[in-house]
Amino acid sequence: MPPSSRRFLFLALLSARLAALAAAAAAASTGDAAAMQALRRELAPPGWGPGGDHCAWRGVTCSPAAAGGPGAVTAIELPRRGLRGDFSAAGALPALTRLDLSANSLRGGVPGSLGSLRRLEFLDLSMNLLTGPIPAALSGASSLRFLNLSNNALSGGIPDELGRLGKLQELQISGNNLTGVLPPWLAGLPALRVLSAYENSLSGAIPPGLGLSSELQVLNLHSNALEGPIPSSLFQLGNLQVLILTLNRLNGSIPESIGRCRGLSNVRIGDNRLSGAIPASIGDATSLTYFEANTNDLSGGIPTQFARCANLTLLNLAYNRLAGEVPDVLGELRNLQELIVSGNGLGGEFPRAVLRCRNLSKLDLSYNSFHGELPEDICNNGSRMQFLFLDHNGFSGSIPTGIGGCTRLLALQLGSNNLGGQIPAEIGKVKSLQIALNLSFNHLVGTLPRELGRLDKLVTLDLSSNEISGQIPGDMRGMLSLIEVNLSNNRLSGAIPAFGPFQKSAASSFSGNAKLCGDPLDVDCGSIYGSNYGMDHRRISYRVALAVVGSCVLIFSLVSLVVALFMWRERQEKEAEVKKAEAGEVVVAAPEVVASTVFIESLQQAIDFQSCVKATYKDANELGNGAFSTSYKAVMPSGMVVCVKKLKSVDRTVTHQQTKMIRELERLAHINHKNLVRPIGYVIYDDCALLLHHHMPNGTLLQLLHNDCNTDGEKQKPDWPRLLSIAIDAAEGLAFLHQVATIHLDICSGNIYLDSHYNALLGEVEISKLLDPSKGTASISAVAGSFGYIPPEYAYTMQVTVPGNVYSYGVVLLEILTSKLPVEEEFGEGVDLVKWVHTAPARGETPEQIMDPRLSTVSFAWRRQMLAVLKVAMLCTERAPAKRPRMKKVVEMLQEAKNS
């Protein structure tokens, strides 16, 4: 064939090939368009219009255009959009590599059509309402690396067909109703790094060999019905970092090979049936931060090798069969915050060495055989102790006066010991006592100290079964928060003081005191102390009766006047609603308000509760949407503007404990700190709770940083001194919360409010108190915190902590410095603001390159201050919680930066 003919043939073939490619691209484009329109109809995502280029829709990514046509859809990312409907049409997008529909309201089953997506690498359908089995057809998505189906209602077993997903790196199927066994093929996945299947009904053994064929780093299988031993293969290659197996039926011993994992930070194996000794090799796991092995059948002593784990923050060995003493070397653990060894056979004297752990906040030695006297310096200078549980031991001697140094103590349990002497007056200095003071079943003598009345936060007081004598001091009426009291079986005498918590208690709370009289005991003081006492008592009662009658007449007159005014205003409102209805406006019937109060007397006439409720019906009134509440602007008939926070459905349980909730809100209303938002009232109706606050005219820090215009529509000008002042205000507010033993649940820029002078106030403080973070967040069905601000350890601990608050605040600082959101697409896949800043040196970028140039280039002084604040933010966002500074130190560093 002549060269010219061959050239012609080649060009013809090339043209045909290009034409075929163009036709295929056009066909694919047509298929994508049809699939995307189907998704739009079913899901109705915000920002997806009926027409136009689907590649321009919010959350959609397409490949570059080819052959003159639109590109193929490669990613759909629509988390937290409130989506409902059928999304099986996504299976008709052959080029799709990422599909994220997490945290929506999707129902039905997982579409098997997704298995036809050969290029799909990332599939996240977690936190929806999906039901039915995991489809075996998903095995067709052979490129899958990340599969997350957690927190749905899926049932059935784990399909064996998924074993074909050889590239799978993360498999997360926790929080479902899955049954059956963990399939053996999990041990053969060569790329598996994360396996999370907790909170299901899985049974059988953990597959032997798991961890030998892959770089397994995280294994979380808690709250199942797994049996058999913990495979030693998990630790053989030394890659494991997190092991959570609590609440199963595992038996056998802790493998000696656990020490191979130098990067192991979190071991939680409590509530199983493990036996044998804790291996000494545990000391080789030098990165260990949390070790929980409570409620097992472990024996032997507490290994001294724990002292080599310098980062150890929590050691929980409660309710085993451990013997011996608490090793003195544990006092070298400077980062230890909780030491829990209750319910064992430990003995010896009080382990004074652990008091050298400067960060120790919880010490639980209860239900053991410790003896001897308690140390005088049990709470030395700078002690951070919050929970001290020493009950059910054999401690003797007197309660040390040094107990007055426990200025952060929330609960003190010394019951069921052999303690004698008097209750020291110094105990009245522990004004932080809130949860309980239990000194029952000892040999205490003398009178009750008047200083007990200073414990105005204490809820539970138990001094029963001692030898305390004398009268109950009237000063105890200062215990304003008291709910439960037990003074039974002592030698108390005289009349029980007239005090609500006393009279509301059962008679058994004061029984066993032969010379005690008055309510709630059915004992007349006159019968014990003679007729004169009775005459005086009747004389006093007569005066009181006259006073009560006079007060009732006055109150009746005032109530009649208020009712008349209320009826007049209600008639006006009804007439106004009739006019609105005639004008075509929608009138929503106001619900019945169950309880409502305004704490500030001067505002009681200015606030209308029905107006507060109605404001939450209109989306136009919405100011912001947080993790636990939605904020609304409410204009009162008086003209006053109020911010109304409506607690979300996950928090409605607080409305079932109205007494506790109201008491806590009233206390917070009088909290004295300029950088905290204080509640001014509340409204409870239809199982909903509204919290009322002063309206903040300048919005939030989130709006200031990321809105181009202010509330008046004017262009915002960056102002570093103002931003630094806001950062310091927020830090001072958070430091004060930590000082009064309150952990915030949602530190973020959206919860930092700005008043008319741009002073910063930290919001949602009352929500943190109502949900009681001291109990952890297991009872909260929502994640504690806002996306992008949650510390990395929360994913494994599910505990809100002080160091976690510091991390979240550090994210806020980075947000101020960079003017970037905590999570942005420009950072790249799997990278948030913290990681983007911390990895800047590896990318060859200087600090000046990551800071907002609109601020850092204004002046040398601003730049110098920003660099100093950047160092503080880097410290706050350290990955290891123990390396983060306390908020008090953060405030000091920020003040130094401001003055530099």
UniProtKB/TrEMBL annotation:
Cellular compartment(s): Membrane
Chief location: membrane
Pfam families tied to this protein: LRR_1, LRR_14, LRRNT_2, PK_Tyr_Ser-Thr
An annotated GO BP: plant organ development
PROSITE patterns for the chain: PROTEIN_KINASE_DOM, TAT
GO molecular function terms attached to this record: ATP binding; protein serine/threonine kinase activity
Position of the signal peptide: 1-27
Annotated SMART domains: LRR_TYP (SM00369)
Membrane topology category: Single-pass type I membrane protein
UniProt keywords, alphabetically: ATP-binding, Glycoprotein, Leucine-rich repeat, Membrane, Nucleotide-binding, Receptor, Repeat, Signal, Transferase, Transmembrane, Transmembrane helix
This protein's record includes keyword Transferase: yes
Database matches in PANTHER family: OS05G0588300 PROTEIN, RECEPTOR PROTEIN KINASE-LIKE PROTEIN ZAR1
Protein name according to UniProt: Protein kinase domain-containing protein
Organism per entry: Urochloa decumbens
